[in-house]
Amino acid sequence: MTILLSTLNARYAHASLGLRYLLANMGPLQEQTSLHEFVIGAKTTEIVERLLAQSPRIIGFGIYIWNVEESTRVVAMLKRVAPQVTIVLGGPEVSHEPGEQEIVRLADYLVTGWGDVTFPKLCGEILHGPKPLMKVHAGVQPPMAEIAMPYSLYTDNDIANRTLYVEASRGCPFKCEFCLSALDKTAWPFGLDTFLGELDTLHARGARLFKFVDRTFNLNIKTSLKIMQFFLDKLAANPDDPVYAHFELVPDHLPDALKDGIRKFPPGALQFEIGIQSFNPAVQALVSRRQDNAKAAENIRWLCEESHAHLHVDLIAGLPGEDIDSFARGFDQLVSLKPHEIQFGILKRLRGTPIIRHTEEHGLVFDPYPPYTILATKLIDFQTMQRLVRFARYWDLVANSGRFANTLAQLLGESPFANFMAFSDWIYARTDATHRIALERLAKLVAQWLETRGMQRSDAEALVGSDYAGRVDAPAEKARPAASVPQRQARHLAA
Ligand code: SF4
After folding, report:
1. Tens digit of pLDDT for each residue in 37-60?
2. Where is the signal peptide (predicted)?
3. Taking the complete model, does pTM exceed 0.85, yes or no?
4. pLDDT tens digit string along 167-209?
5. Which is the closest atom of ligand 1 to the Cα of 173?
6. Which of 20, 90, 223, 375 is most buried, by the most CB atoms less than 10 A from its CB?
7. pLDDT 10s digits, 249-306
């Protein structure tokens, strides 16, 4: 095969949408192009051997924050054992600050930004001349209607076993300084009817789990409603074989028409990922995030109380101007709204994002290695930041996992952040670990913690035991939700 498109995905279940877009847009070169996905953690020699077994002339790599280190090793090895193969890079991680990156130094060419048109053009020039003179090629953004959609490239195996990423639009009109989408300044929609036609074909082929990567699903309400109606029609026609759709929402924009649509979805069919990031207006202003906090809180409460949507809400620790007290207040406020999951992220310095303008004034110290996590700020020292990192991990294990649904309220009490931080510090002191804690052991530790907080041992064990008895994957299982519902969401549904 002449041209290979390759990347290392974070998990096997993540099918790369970016590579499929490139393949769909290769034009006359498509027949000579094939796709080769790997998963991080794979042996470098195996990846290189498998790629070279195709006898490629060109290999294009999709580079992301999660794979840049391993991809650098792959490219370095390729350049040693097969220097005749031309290496082209693309993807968000190498689209900014390319001069500072080892992988860019090793590669032959780089396409920054949109690759749909520029990558095939560059490949044509590499194969047939004239030889491209420049190493870095700024990706040309074509009219959306000229971009071929990639959905037919999802194989039957992808449909059966992997998350299907889809997008009705690219870009975001907001300018949150920690986010790469802030550089877009606007959003560009794909032709809606064509897009829905593609979804229809995927559904007919058996796809039931659709993850929208649009940064703001509820930007254009007319479009949102049409997309939701597509799924409602599928649910009505096939109630015993339901679909599951995941969208990202901005929290302060939920007009009544959208609420009416959302209300119609049954349990286990809809998930929203909602970014709050910070409830502190001063922090929001510093990072240029426009958000009506009162409206956002009201909408999250409405979604929790009046809809069946599964809610995954994001907060970020380590933003400039945020100290522990202000973060704790935001966390407690969010817990009181009762979303199913709180994604407690730690700020990362994504290449190209304007957040670095605060570095000096706010004492931002980032890890120099991917994923460039914040290590300290003027208001949160390194040790405290590490406590927050562990908090986030334990929160995921205990709260977001849905495995301790009955116990969680007891664990959090009236001061969720303070109480969970105390639990997090205690469990870390006991285990010295944040990973590889078996579920049985974790349950015992949770019960012991409750005991140290004054609960009778028998009561603590009974409470934790009630979660065990009710959990979805327990042997004495309740009615299992539809197969399209991801496991963690299924646990929340069953709680
Ligand atoms: S955080 Fe969300 S709203 Fe803000 S720029 Fe990024 S995608 Fe847009």
Report:
1. 999 999 999 999 999 999 999 999
2. none
3. yes
4. 999 999 999 999 999 898 899 999 999 999 999 999 999 999 9
5. 8
6. 90
7. 999 999 999 999 999 999 999 999 999 999 999 999 999 999 999 999 999 999 999 9
412/425 Cα distance (integer angstroms): 14
Q: Which of 250, 271, 273, 194 is nearest to 226 (CA)?
A: 194
Residue 176 CA to ligand 1 center (angstroms) comes to 6
Edge-first strand order for the sheet with 310-317 is 164-166, 209-212, 244-249, 270-277, 310-317, 341-346
CB count in 10 Å sphere of residue 360 = 9
Give residues (CB < 6 A) around ligand 1: 172, 174, 176, 179, 181-182, 215-216, 250, 275
Cα–Cα distance measured from residue 296 to residue 277, given in angstroms and rounded to the nearest whole number = 11
**Domain positions in the chain:** 3-142, 154-378, 381-495
Residue 402's contacts (CB-CB under 8 Å, 6 or more residues apart) are 340, 471, 472, 488, 489, 491, 492, 494, 495
The residues with which 112 forms a beta bridge, in sequence order, are 138
Pocket test for ligand 1, best of 179, 274, 284, 314 (most atoms within 8 A of CB): 179
DSSP state at residue 398:
I
Atom of ligand 1 nearest to the CA of 289: 4
Q: Are 55 and 1 in contact (CB under 8 A)?
A: yes
Q: Which residue has the tokens 């599964």?
A: 310
Q: 3-142, what's its fold? A: Rossmann fold (3.40.50)
- The closest residue, in CA terms, to atom 7 on ligand 1 is 215
β-sheet bridge partners, residue 376: 365
Rg over alpha carbons for the chain, rounded to the nearest Å, is 24
CA of 250 to the centre of ligand 1 (A): 8
